[in-house]
Design a protein that fits this description.
heterodimer; A: 506 residues; alpha/beta; Rossmann fold; 6-stranded mixed β-sheet; 34% helix; B: 346 residues; ABC transporter involved in vitamin B12 uptake, BtuC; two-stranded antiparallel ribbon; globular; Sugar ABC transporter ATP-binding protein (chain A); ATP binding (chain A)
């Protein structure tokens, strides 16, 4: 923590502007980072955070504005130049090479060598020192990175950042791929870094994380900084949301609608198991009910959803949808019976990013618009558009490339797909990952609306708050087993966390 | 009069929905012609170069027919291959499967049987050979999880070997008169080979752009996992796609038999490379998910026009190969620059 408010800033950015092909991405951004602080950069998707990071790391050249580094005006002309200054960046998409070892990844681009020959031992020794510094001395430098979890890959990426003489590390949404336990570990590492005098620019959508780790906050909206260097302790969450979105968000989670007693059971999972991953999962969900699965990453949450859906072949048990028993391992069967999955990795598992939006909306239903194999594309497009409008998908342009939509609107494409299909059971895996704060409330409301219309929903989320806020019933999963089933009214975040941790310890 | 008009207007307005309709210009530019504008320009430039350098020898109706006839066999193969590449795969076996088809159809026993029954037998057999080879490719790739490059490389080598074995490495002359008459016929002055090319191209265009089959092919190539999780039977569809490629190789076999009046295991050597070049130059992405039939046809025509211009000017074939290489590189470079703009083609 910083006590001395007058310490010379490490980095001072003033009035940075940047335009791409006529679009003004940055309209004048200020930022001031002090040594050894955690400075949070907050803003919705498209606010200009990524552009700013790329300017600071030398990927983009700004059109205007001043960057001062340790008091001197600099122009960061190239990523290598940024590293030379002591600015390292950890991008959201982990930039590690799976086929190389940890040490090889850490020194990628600045290998320890003499006369073209690699000094493997020295690199391993130096890598180990860095890993110890990050509190991960248990990782062996000669391990292949492809075998590591996402959290450990991030540690490797961080070690690489530190392998240059780094004074400032920019972390772009490092928590997006982590569960709550791993996030705690990440915070421990960040605190160690700041204790050693390294400054961190931390980017996240999760306001509660910023509360925990941040010292000061800069808020960016529409390419301009709305507030520079606010103290985290003195700023309320409501104020931050207002600064980010320009409007006040009263209550993020919509009110629950009681599930009618006569609502039929739509999906019944009996003794489902996947060898080596999870065993004996039984649950049933009625129409209008939302059941949340909480647990650590690796507890088997996502695998349970995927097995229910048939994307993985169950080794035990079975799934019954509205009285129809599904064949194990057949997605096609599940879809026909009325199950839909909005997968965890929206971009790689859910969407064809370069295709038009309407074709992604109709991906499960386009055959309906065909007669004798010939598609009636006009009607298909029209029906997709109506669905998009019903979900307030923005922009409501069916011909746009899906890649250009924001995270929240991409999620709506998936929901639209299953609504169009007439899905009775929706499986939602991390429905708000990569969705910014303003759009989250909208997705929550939409999920509630779907339930109110009689859909049975099974929800998986790393954010316990989200599970409790949305679900009627919560199943706590630990180590491939259902530890507890509880009414969501009867439990709070701490209670779930407690159960989760007990499960992990058991 | 005004009353019925008003009724029609009232009915049609909500259906067409005003602003949501793409503009006319946007429609044209996003249509086949607009998306392949670069290829059309390249072809026009080649025609101008040919006309200037070789005059009437080049710019004559007969010569244009020659160019298209020259393009027709590789064109039919390339059209089948386009589907495979859009689906995210590759088929290296097209040339040797075509060779095998010519050998099987021209076996003495087959020709004798054809004379006994009908020359149609010599049309059906190459088609059957192509479908069978495609089926094997598809099953090995989709259900055996073998990388398409390796599976079809194995088929390339295997089919060539089989063709050598059953022909004894001899050239088998076609003597079946009914078959020869059919393949050498002309309809309104246009040779059959060109008609076949044209019909295959039109059918393929419909298949890719207007049917569920085409939509599935593009979806799988665009994102295989997303397609699977959306409920598309990905493996089964991939088998169909390789069968289609085998089928077009078989049809090309019929055309080859007719043009050369001989079946031999050397037919179609290195055709896979020419076909891949035509498909890629035509704008189809090798990683799948995007490609056009019109582009492939233009790609094939560009290469055959180029060959013709060189031949008419009595230029060295080595120079021609170098030019081909340059065209491929430039086309791919341009593709990378412009491919990321806008939604996919069909």
């Amino acid at each position: 923590m910083i006590d001395d408010d007058h310490s010379e800033p490490l980095l001072r950015v003033h009035g940075i502007t940047k335009a791409f092909a006529g679009v003004q991405a940055l309209k004048g951004v200020d930022l001031e980072v002090r040594p050894a602080e955690v400075h949070c950069l907050l803003g919705q998707n498209g606010a200009g955070k990524s552009t700013l990071i790329k300017v600071l790391s030398g990927v983009y050249q700004p059109d205007g504005g001043v960057i001062r580094w340790q008091g001197d005006e600099v122009s960061i002309i190239h990523p290598v130049f940024a590293l030379g200054l002591g600015i390292a960046t950890m991008y959201q998409e982990l930039d590690v090479v799976d086929g190389l070892t940890i040490a090889e990844n850490i020194f990628l681009g600045h290998e320890r060598s003499s006369g073209g020959l690699l000094k493997v031992k020295e690199a391993n020794r130096a890598a180990r020192a860095l890993l110890v510094r990050l509190g991960h001395g248990n990782l062996s430098p000669s391990t292949e990175v492809g075998r590591l979890s996402a959290a450990n890959k991030q540690i490797v990426s961080m070690a690489r950042a530190l392998s240059h003489d780094t004074k400032l590390i920019i972390m772009d949404e490092p928590s997006a791929v982590l569960d709550s336990e791993e996030v705690r570990n990440l915070f421990r590492v960040i605190r160690e870094l700041t204790a050693q005098g390294v400054a961190v620019v931390y980017i996240s959508h999760r306001l509660e994380e910023i509360r925990q780790i941040g010292d000061r906050i800069t808020v960016i909206k529409d390419g301009s900084s709305m507030a520079v260097g606010l103290s985290v302790a003195d700023t309320s969450t409501a104020d931050l949301i207002t600064l980010m979105t320009g409007r006040t968000v009263a209550n993020v989670f919509p009110d629950r609608v009681p599930v009618p007693a006569e609502a039929p059971v739509l999906i019944e999972v009996a003794g489902l198991g996947l060898r080596g991953i999870f065993a004996d999962v039984s649950l049933s969900v009625r129409g209008g009910e939302i059941v949340g699965l909480a647990g650590l990453v690796g507890s088997g949450r996502s695998e349970i959803l995927e097995t229910i859906y048939g994307a993985r072949k169950a080794s035990a048990g079975h799934v019954t949808v509205a009285g129809v028993r599904l064949a194990a391992g057949s997605v096609n069967d599940a879809v026909k019976a009325g199950i839909g999955l909005a997968p965890e990795e929206r971009k790689s598992q859910g969407l064809i990013l370069d295709e038009q939006v309407y074709r992604n909306v109709t991906l499960s239903t386009f055959a309906r618009f065909a007669r004798g194999g010939f598609l009636d594309e006009r009607r298909e497009r029209q029906v997709a558009l109506e669905q998009m409008q019903a979900l307030e998908l923005r922009p409501a342009d069916p011909d746009r490339a899906t890649r250009t939509l924001s995270g929240g609107n991409q999620q709506k494409v998936l929901l639209a797909r299953w609504l169009l299909h007439g899905t009775k059971v929706l499986l939602l895996d991390e429905p708000t990952r990569g969705v910014d704060v303003g759009a989250r409330a909208e997705i929550y409301a939409l999920i509630r609306r779907l339930a109110a219309a009689g859909t049975a929903i099974i929800l998986v989320s790393s954010e316990i708050e989200e599970v409790i806020g949305l679900a009627d019933r919560v199943l706590v999963i630990g180590d491939g087993e259902v530890l507890t089933t509880t009414d969501a009214h009867a439990i709070d975040e701490a209670g779930v966390l407690d159960l989760v941790m007990k499960g992990a310890a058991a | 009069m005004s009353e019925p008009n008003g009724a029609i207007a009232a009915q049609t307005v909500p259906e067409t929905g005003g602003e949501n309709r793409p503009g006319v210009l946007r429609r044209i530019m996003s249509g086949s012609v607009g998306r392949n504008l670069g290829l059309v320009i390249a072809l026009v430039v080649l025609v101008i170069v040919g006309t200037v350098t070789a005059g009437d020898r080049f710019a004559s109706y007969d010569n244009f027919l020659t160019i298209i006839r020259f393009a027709s066999i590789i064109g039919v193969i390339s059209i089948g291959l386009t589907f495979v590449i859009i689906a995210g795969g590759i088929d290296l076996s097209v040339g040797s499967v075509m060779g095998l088809a010519t050998v099987v159809a021209s076996l003495t026993a087959v020709q004798a049987a054809a004379t006994q029954s009908s020359w149609l037998l010599m049309v059906l057999i190459p088609v059957g050979v192509g479908i069978a080879a495609g089926l094997i490719n598809g099953i090995v790739i989709a259900y055996g999880n073998v990388v398409a490059f390796m599976a079809t490389l194995a088929m390339l080598v295997g089919a060539r070997g089989l063709a050598e074995l059953i022909s004894g490495r001899r050239t088998q002359i076609v003597i079946e008169t009914g078959f020869l008459q059919f393949t050498r016929s002309s309809i309104i002055g246009v040779p059959l080979l060109i008609w076949v090319f044209l019909i295959v191209a039109i059918l393929a265009w419909f298949l890719l752009n207007r049917t569920t089959f085409g939509r599935r092919t593009v979806a799988i190539g665009g994102n295989r996992e997303a397609s699977r999780l959306a409920g598309i039977r990905v493996k089964r569809h991939l088998v169909y796609v390789y069968v289609l490629s085998g089928l077009t190789a078989g049809i090309a076999g019929i055309m080859m038999l007719g043009r050369t009046t001989a079946g031999t295991s050397t037919h179609g050597g290195l055709y896979e490379l020419d076909a891949i070049a035509a498909v890629v130059v035509g704008g189809t992405l090798l990683i799948g998910g995007r490609g056009t039939i019109v582009g492939t046809v233009l790609g094939v025509l560009i290469f055959s026009t180029l060959t013709n211009v060189f031949t008419q000017n009595n230029l060295d074939t080595s120079v021609q190969s170098i030019t081909k290489g340059l065209i491929i590189v430039v086309a791919v470079l341009l593709q990378q620059r412009f491919a990321s703009r806008g939604p996919s083609g069909t």
